[in-house]
Amino acid sequence: MTTEYILRSLYRPGMDLSGMQPLQFKQTPQRVLLVLPTWVGDVVMATPFIRGLFERFPEAEITLLMNRHLYPLLEGSPWVERCEFWAPRKKTAEAKQQQRELLAKLRAQRFDLAVMLPNSLRSAWLCFRAGARRRVGFNRDGRGLLLTDRVPVPNRRKGGYEPLPLCDYFAVLANTLGMPHPGDGLTLYLTDDADAAVEQRLATEGVRPEQPLVVLCPGANFGASKCWFPERFAAVADQLVRRHDAAVVISPGPGEEPLAEAIVAAMSERSFLLMAPCLTLGELKSLIADADLLLGNDTGPRHFGRAFDTHRVTVFGPTEQRWTDTSHGNETIVKVEVPCGPCHKKVCPLEEQVCMTRVTVDSVTEACERELAAAL
Q: Could you list the residue ranges forming a coiled coil in this record (predicted)?
């Protein structure tokens, strides 16, 4: 049976999630390196921590280290005055030179403190080689010897990890740094250039300003298992056009073009495919901020909708929703409970992916109509 519900955060302000006393600094750090996550959604869910870190060290020069293609996520914010970008993970001579140049830049800044949000050995190794005086991160994935301050993992259990909302997980590091719980209020900023580009794009495509704007993001970089079926997205979209005169705008990410084209081909009603080129991440923020409804899978753009309080319907399949739980409202989750899930496999190994096949067109359509009615 399909279940639908709104997520609520598990955290309580002021709770100590780590059991570790806050670090003591002889001198307040003046040069801080913050290593950001590598997934779109995780960066958005890190924004409460980022905001809290700037409040914790208001006089410090805080440098963000991130993947270059994720910079538009934070563009427009007051946090991007100092940024460095990961070099490509390739063995070419050019990539190796870029890696050396990045390391030299980081060493030259003589960081007093490096804070790692990712759990990767790679991030700890780079901060160690960069000579950061204090290196703070979770003590996992074999990187403990590279950290000066090893933070116990709060949700470790035998054989894996207990699901914990990512904002609460990052709050453990916040507690270690003497910060209050940053909360789970996701924050993104818009830019005038991206706003103007999206407005022009929609006008050119023929979207009428009076139409309810429904944005459909059907892909997921995680893997095919997260993606609901194109023909079912198409059936829901057709219903929204017929019943509500909705402008259904389909915005795929790079590599998701075939999926978006399959939805358009399966639809009977008109839709608007924003492809060739696809929107940038900055433009996608502007589009979702302006939308009346966002429909998609458990993927990065969903968190854009949270940040802008856009009404959302999210189809969940193989992933555990508790990892991304927040107190943001205006969201209906449509999912089914199955014996084999949540499995977090990128490709379903079974003959039938029941966590997705049992999510019906009717249940998603009903959820969309409720959220759309609340938005208008």
A: none
